[in-house]
Amino acid sequence: MSEPALPELDPVIHAQARLRVTVALAGLHRGDQITFPRLQQLLEMTAGNLSTHLRKLEDAEYVAITKSFEHRTPVTLVRLTARGRAAFEQYTATLHRLLDAGT
């Protein structure tokens, strides 16, 4: 009798940098946003690296990015979407199942 297949982790979230971004955004209250520079500082990532990973998360509709101006200064806000929060919750549940399968 073969053992059941192990569940797969979401490859969009699983990349280390995107996982760190998702964890940081999931720590915010639902609907809350964080500025791009604050997220960059929090994660200690370069602007280019963070932008690349945010684009991948945005393509999956896991994050929403809003660009606006405040006193003629550009402001970029990032938030986790409902779809992104659900994907992260599924990711953590799958990770728990994988860890439980190893014991």
TrEMBL record:
Signal peptide: none
Pfam family, one: HTH_34
Superkingdom of this protein's organism: Bacteria
Residue stretches making up the Winged helix DNA-binding domain: 24-99
InterPro entries: WH-like_DNA-bd_sf (IPR036388), WH_DNA-bd_dom (IPR027395), WH_DNA-bd_sf (IPR036390)
Record-given protein name: ArsR family transcriptional regulator
